[in-house]
Amino acid sequence: MSVFVFSKPTLLCVIFCICSILLFPEFVTAGVTRHYKFDIRLKNVTRLCKTKSIVTVNGKFPGPRVVAREGDRLVIKVVNHVSNNVSIHWHGIRQLQSGWADGPAYVTQCPIQKGQSYVYNFTITGQRGTLWWHAHISWMRATLYGPLIIYPQHNASYPFAKPHKEVPIVFGEWWNANTEAVINQSLVTGAGPNVSDSYTINGLPGPLYNCSAKDTFKLKVKPGKTYMLRIINAALNDDLFFRIANHTMAVVEADALYVKPFETDIIVITPGQTTNVLLKTHHNPQQTTFVMVARPYFTGQGTFDNSTIAGILMYGDDHHNSPPSSSNNISIKNLPIPTLPPINSTSFVFNFTNKFRALASVKFPANVPRNVDKHFFFTVGLGSNPCPKNQTCQGPNNSSKFAASVNNVSMILPNSALLQSYFFKKSNGVYTSDFPSVPLIPFNYTGTPPNNTNVSNGTKVVVLLFNTSVEVVMQDTSILGAESHPLHLHGYNFYVVGQGFGNFDPKNDPANYNLVDPVERNTVGVPSGGWVAIRFLADNPGEYH
């Protein structure tokens, strides 16, 4: 598998390759086969009074909802009609025995070129809840994304009362500029990429942005009912705070895994994460319209979209949730705007994430690896690459380029897919298996940064034997500013057994690990100026993280 850690200016990547010579029996399921077709096409879309051509799935922004049940088989044919190369990742799907369907370009597959197609064929085994899909090449996921909803098997129920209605809320971003031009310019100059012009809820920017009152997400509800909000953060890089005025939410699921319910009026959601919450509406609301808002959490030194998106919660008999028409503009001038934590409120984020606990029940146990076969300590952060000769760079000190790295190794994508290279035993010249398990040069990771900020560059992997129990400690660094780093593990869930501030202490910190009911996820944020420890069992051969 391969671990992709998305950082603000670029991509951090560590590749774990799980090897096995075992043959597995076919998984027994009682599901059905569901067919979808994704036509990748250009579509003119108008937001913020700007019309531009964007890459879409089936002409929709955001893309279509994929729905299945636990045990179902999904067969999704993707046909590329645009000049950009494309691949689609099914974020959070375990891909048991179907690693080639995972989707990251040049990792599990070569990208789909113009005029070509690719069929993603996989079975959903032992999973139910809210996940999502998105493009997994360059910045194509800025417009290519959508919900992936997995219902429990027939005759199975939620571990909570069935809600009156379920509503996806997908956070995204909108750029007036071409997003591929934005990231390409950043890669050339070495500076952080230009920020988005707005955030979106289900593709709509809302009334706090210019010319956008008509493009406001409205959640219409009935009094005294319970609604399950399936919240997805599809923003490229930003953690987000979210709140609905005068309402509380009960968190019941994270990354398609049930958690011990807890109530909150504000949630924090990292890029790539999903969170299901139960919203109980008031029986006799004092007003019929309430504002919901989201805004980024940010501690780094780079650029980011420091704006707020708003939507509307509306009480009434009509529970239809389609976007309002252009003749139904929304005004929030006389409505109270809910307050959110300060934009750099690391303490709030840390305390919120500590509230997540696995159900750890008989039906949904927490099978945390107690004994660890392989320990890894990965530093995560920003460094620099020297500016090429005869080129002007706009990175650190205007003389270099920003580069994200893990253990000071910045990933170079190969020209052929890693999984294919491994399978056909043609890995020579494609990757090496010498990724360092610890930093080669230890330093005070969250203290005074070293003078030399240069990174090394390569395509390196870690090879694991099947059924290896693994612990990975991800340590943030302050080399070019401490910040939160989202970590997503492809093909696996993992247990978040510990987190803290400052430098990880291998002698004392493990004593405080939660090995009883740690939250199980597929995406976690490495705390700004701190560390997070995860454990998982490498039981999915052929997958890359």
UniProtKB/TrEMBL annotation:
Q: What does the cofactor field's note say? A: Binds 4 Cu cations per monomer.
Biological process terms in GO annotation: lignin catabolic process
- Its top-level enzyme class, in one word, is oxidoreductase
Major localisation: secreted
Q: Which GO terms describe its cellular component?
A: apoplast
Q: What does this protein do?
A: Lignin degradation and detoxification of lignin-derived products.
Q: Its family?
A: Belongs to the multicopper oxidase family.
Q: What is this protein called?
A: Laccase
